[in-house]
Amino acid sequence: MNGARHARAVALMVVVTLLWSSAGVVSRHLQAAEGFEVTFWRSAFNALALVGALGVMRGRALWQGLSSAPPVLWISGLCWAVMFTAFMLALTLTSVANVLVTMSIGPLLTALLARMVLHHRLPLRTWCAIAVAGVGIAWMFGREVQAANARSLLGMLVALAVPLAAAINFTVMQHTLHGQGDPDESLGGGMGGETPATLDMLPAVLIGALLSSVVMLPLAWPLQASGHDLLLLAGLGVFQLAVPCLLVVGLTRVLPAPEISLLGLLEVIFGVLWAWLGAGEAPAASALTGGLLVLGALVGNELIALRQRAGSASG
Predict the structure, then answer these.
(1) Smallest Cα–Cα separation from 99: which of 141, 128, 41?
(2) Which of 39, 120, 164, 308 gets the most CB atoms within 10 Å of its CB?
(3) What are the tens digits of pLDDT across the range 161-183?
(4) Which class for 184: exposed (0-12), middle (13-18), buried (19 or more C-beta within 10 A)?
């Protein structure tokens, strides 16, 4: 791989994680919008941005493709809708740190589900990473139970729907591809890395945004967002979702999936940091402990994978 091209791709992936990580701190500065309405507006603005961008990129072919899309595209769109919806609802119920750490187990859940459903072999390092990350998440949930913080515990359970939906999304698409590809190679992080490169994911993202906004609208009614809130939520829909989704699909053609997964973990660090500095939301000790276990497991797993592949390539 060309060194300069790789460096540009890495820098762009860091920008993607910065954009992803902005949701928590921005949501803490909303004035009137709450719960379902926050989710509705973000998904609606995301859908509008994707319609505009994909319309320019593909023209009529976009809508013609959706009208004749295979079932896997609609299943994937439903998974994206769950991810979009659960993420913002979770942020209204618990801390940014709790949400992001819970979501960060997505790559490991994907590996586990691929093993259970598709019978893919997992290396020992991934089994170890799953075990360590499981301890970290269990620690976080256990501390919330001990503290009798029902609202925060509910938020973490809602956040858990995000990596579960991402894992199902990947597994369904892998099954459609007749089990092609190494699942351990495909454990990309964040919004785009879990997608096999041979599938056109962008229309599914649009479907997810449309479904999320349509389902949330009656629950959010009557709408109460101020002009200030709408400006912030429009920024989230466009720059925290639509733009990174478009960028990361292109990056999957340049960066290997384990590297995307490793860089994607920066979202957790950035997101917690922005919420701390920009909204005064210091992470709890349980989130820090659980987060260190989860992130340590993920980083260790991906670093070993990168080293093994580098060794194989040089050999």
Answers:
(1) 141
(2) 39
(3) 998 998 888 888 777 765 444 54
(4) buried
